[in-house]
Design goal:
With 139 residues, this protein is an alpha+beta fold. The protein has a single domain, classed as PRC-barrel domain (SH3 type barrels, Roll), CATH 2.30.30.240. The chain is built from two helices and seven strands, in the order βββββββαα. The longest helix has 12 residues.
């Protein structure tokens, strides 16, 4: 991939966009794996500013009172279901835990996103033929 192929992504909390209905905002909800095991919580949503679409969940897990907490991205393609209190990811706990870690100071974004999509087994959203998932799914 050439640098610049990936659109500008930003945290929803830092973007000018807002979610019109509070009950549709999944930030702060617990995240679970496909079997219902808790993975952590949805800390933020990563949005494509140009298309105004959510591309990733920022999953926060581990640690105590924010110390030692790990943050990782989950493509929205992996979201299987959204309920009032949880977001279910269509992966196992181990698959989510083994996802590439993200540190904006240490990682080339293009390489990171390629590795992330390879890890989860999805076609990257910036490639030809990509079809965005219907998000959020509601149970």
């Amino acid at each position: 991939m050439k640098s610049g192929d990936i659109p500008v992504l930003t945290r929803l909390s830092d973007a000018p966009q807002v979610i019109p209905a509070a009950d549709e905002d999944i930030r702060g909800r617990k995240a679970t794996d496909r079997s219902g095991n808790e993975l952590g919580k949805v800390g933020d949503l990563i949005v494509d500013e140009g298309e105004r679409k959510v591309r990733f969940l920022l999953l926060e897990h581990g640690g105590f009172l924010g110390i030692g907490e790990k943050k990782s991205y989950v493509p929205v393609d992996a979201v299987a279901d959204v309920s009032e209190d949880a977001v279910r990811i269509d992966r196992t706990r181990d698959e989510a835990a083994d996802a590439p870690a993200y540190d904006p100071e240490l990682v080339d974004q293009d390489v990171f996103y390629d590795r992330l999509y390879t890890h989860y087994g999805y076609v990257p959203f910036w490639t030809a033929g990509y079809v965005a998932p219907r998000f959020p799914h509601r149970s």
